Amino acid sequence: MHLLTADNCSSMRIDMSDIYGGFWYAEYEHFYIGSADTGYVLEVRGFKGNASDAFEYQNHMEFSAMDRDRDISNTHCAGNYEGGWWFSHCQHVNINGKYTLGLTWFDGVRNEWIAVATSEMRMYRRPGCS
Fold this sequence. Notes:
Layout: H1 2-5, E1 10-18, E2 23-33, E3 42-49, H2 77-81, E4 93-94, E5 104-107, E6 112-125
Antiparallel strand pairs: 1-2, 1-6, 2-3, 4-5, 5-6
Protein name: Fibrinogen C-terminal domain-containing protein
Pfam family, one: Fibrinogen_C
GO cellular component, one term: extracellular space
């Protein structure tokens, strides 16, 4: 992902459905993943969507995996939820873990969690970027 985003011309969109049949999306105009030397740090900005900007909690976090705990939580998020992600604390955004352990997206506007049933994450080139 670092090589795909290295030219700073990438955007990203996440589409989700919740367990109640609702549909949510979060789109970031700027999406960048750092190199291995940075721990594959996440950088996003330019949010729009109806899912709230939950990635604000993940921004500038290194990628955590089951064998590499890089989150700031007292627990090992990737290990506990059985999936790698750019965790800060375990539950603000967790759409890449074991489904039965709970996939979530934090809605800071309503101060509640969206119980995610499905999610799709897509990167694309920003229009006008050469």
